Amino acid sequence: MRSRVALVAAVAVAAGVVLSSGVVYVVVRHDLLSRVDGALERHAGLLEQRRAKHGLIEAIQAPRHVPAELPSAPVLAQVVTDRGRVVASEQAGLRLPVGPGVLRVAAGRARPYFADLTVTGTSVRMLVTGFGPHLALEVIRPVTDLDAELERLAAVLIVTSAAGVILALLLGAGVAGLALRPVRRLTEAAEAVASTRDLAQEIPVEGRGELARLAASINTMLEALDSSQRAQRQLVADASHELRTPLTSLRTNVEVLAEEHALDAESRQQLLADLAAQFDVLSALLADLVELARQDDPGAVLAPAQVVALDEVVGEALRRSQLHHPEVRFVSVATSATPVMVVGVAADLERAIVNLLDNAAKWSPEGGTVEVSVSAGAPDPGRDAHEAQGRSTTHDAVVIVRDQGPGIGPEDRPHVFDRFYRARSTSQVPGSGLGLAIVRRIVEAHGGSVQVEGESGEGTSMVVKLPCAGGEHASPA
Ligand code: ATP
Ligand code: MG
Questions:
Q1: Among 149, 172, 190, which residue terminates a domain?
Q2: CA of 432 to the centre of ligand 2 (A)
Q3: Where does a domain end: 294, 317, 347?
Q4: CA distance 93 to 68
Q5: Number of domains in the chain
Q6: Which ligand does the CA of 363 lie closest to?
Q7: Which of 282, 289, 359 to probe ligand 1 with, by most ligand atoms within 8 A of CB?
Q8: Distance from Cα 301 to the centre of ligand 1, integer Å
Q9: Domain of 98?
Q10: Closest atom of ligand 1 to CA, residue 438
Q11: Which residue, judged by its Cα, is nearest atom 29 of ligand 1?
Q12: Are residues 271 and 392 in the same domain?
C-alpha cells in the first residue's frame, strides 16, 4: 500500500512536471523565435528604405569583407529576381538557396513568409519578402545561439523534472508511511491478540477518524468475544461443580450397597430408592445444562416460531406438573374467555411454564394451592419505550403463577434468574438453580419479560409477559 501511494504521487508529479516543462519550453522557444523574426523584419524594412532612397545597388552594398563562414549573429540579405537570378548580396560569395517559394514572392504571387533552413551547415531563420517589381529579398539570421539556449533550457527542465519525480517518490513514501502508521498499529494489535489469544487486550483508539472507529469496533468485538468466552468457561466450571455433589452421593450410596452385606431388605430398598432419586436429579441437571448450552449456541437449529394458543400451552404444563406434584393443588384462575395467541415455540414456552410451576410446587406448603392465570393485559409500560411504541396497539399476554410458599426475599430477587443461584434459605429443597435461568432465556427469546412480584412472606408471584400475536411478531432468536 505504501509503495502504491508513493508511486501514485510520483506519477502525478511526473505528469504535472512534464506538462509544465513542455509549456515552458514552447513558450520560451516562441519568444526567442519572434525576437529573431523581429530582427529580420527590421533589417528588411531598413533595406527597403535605402532602396527607395538610393536604389537597389546602393541599398545592398556588396561586397563587404567576406569571412568564409556565416558570422554567428549578423543579419544578411540577398536580392533575387523572379527568374531565380541573384542580383545583389550583402555578402559576396554566399549564395542563399532560392526555392520556388522565393520566386513566387518575387513574382508578387505569394505573401512574405518565414522559413527555417540550413546554409553551409548552419541553421538559420529566413524571411522572404517582396523588394520592388519582380524582385524578392531573402534575409537570414543564424540561430545557433538560440538553439544552444533552447538545448540548455531543455537540459535544465529534464534534470529538475527528474529531481521532482524522485522527490515526490520519497515524499509519497514518507507521507504514506505516516498515514498508514495507525493501520500498522491496528494490525500489530490484532496480531498480538491472535498470537496471545488474550481477548481482554484493548487496541488503542487514536483520534476520531475511520481508523479510530475501526479500532473501537474491534474493541467492541473483542469485548463481546471475551464476555462470551468467560460465560462459557463459567458455565463449564459451574456445571462441573454442580455435577460433583450428586455424583459423590451416588458413589457413596453405591459403595454402601456393595460393602454392607448385612443390610436388611428394608434399608436396602430405601438405599435403592435413594439411588433412583439421585439419578433423577442428575438427569434433570444434565437436561437443564444441555438446554442452556443449546440456548447459548447462536448457530443451533431452532424450532420454527408459530402462532401458539398460550392457554393451551399453560393447560398442558399444568397437567404435567400436577402429575409430578400430586401433593399440591394446581388451579387455573381468571383465564380470559378468548384464546390468547402469541408467536413462538410451543415446546419452549411449555418448558418455561413447567419450570415456574415446578418451583411453585417445591416451595408450597404441604397441600398448598398454586394459582395460574393467563390473560391479555395492557402493554408493559416498563418495557423498552421503542419496543412499546412498535406495538402500541398490541396487548401483552400475561401468565401469573402464584404460590403460598415463603416467597423470595428482596436480597434474592435480583439474582434468582442467574444460573446456579439458589436462595440460602431454601437450600434444603433439591434443585440446581438453573430453572429460572432457562425461563428467562426462553421468555426473552420470545421478546417478553419475567419478574418476581408480591411481598415476601406472602407467597411468590412470577409474572411472565409476552407480546401477543397480531402486531409485530417477535420471533424467538
Ligand atoms: P432447578 O429449577 O434447577 O431444579 P431451583 O428451583 O433451585 O433449581 P431456580 O428455579 O432457578 O432453581 O430458582 C432459583 C431460586 O429462586 C431457588 O433456589 C429459590 O431459592 C428461589 N425460588 C424460585 N422460585 C421460588 C418460589 N416459588 N418460592 C420461593 N423461592 C423461589
Ligand atoms: Mg426451579
A1: 149
A2: 7
A3: 294
A4: 9
A5: 3
A6: 1
A7: 359
A8: 29
A9: 2-149
A10: 11
A11: 407
A12: no
Q: How far is CA 222 from CA 200, 209, 212, 237, in A?
A: 7, 20, 15, 22
- Distance, CA 417 to ligand 1 centroid (Å)? 9
Q: What are the residues whose beta carbon lies below 5 Å from ligand 2 (ion)?
A: 359, 435
H helix and E strand count, the chain: 11, 12
DSSP result, 389-434: HHTTTPPEEEEEEE--S----TTTTTTTTSTT---GGGTTS---S-
CA of 422 to the centre of ligand 1 (A): 6
Q: What is the rounded CA–CA span in Å between residue 311 and residue 361? A: 20
Residue pLDDT tens, the chain, 477 long: 778 878 888 888 889 988 999 999 999 999 999 999 998 999 898 888 888 887 777 667 644 444 444 444 578 889 999 998 988 888 777 788 899 999 999 999 999 999 999 988 889 999 999 988 899 999 999 898 889 999 999 999 999 989 988 888 888 888 888 878 878 888 888 888 888 888 888 887 877 888 888 888 988 998 988 888 887 887 788 778 778 877 888 898 888 888 877 778 888 888 888 889 888 888 888 888 888 777 776 666 667 889 999 999 999 999 999 988 999 999 998 666 788 899 999 988 998 999 999 999 999 998 999 999 999 865 545 544 444 444 444 678 999 999 998 889 888 999 999 988 888 777 678 788 888 998 998 899 899 999 998 776 788 999 999 998 875 444 444
CA-based nearest residue to 418, from 238, 196, 210, 277: 238
The letter for the amino acid at 256 is V
Distance CA 389, CA 273 (A): 55
Which residues form ligand 1's pocket by a CB distance below 6 Å? 288, 359-360, 363, 403, 405-406, 408, 416, 421-423, 426, 431-437, 460
CA of 416 to the centre of ligand 2 (A): 10
Query: Is the domain of 98 the same as that of 224?
Result: no
Threshold 0.70, pTM exceeds? no
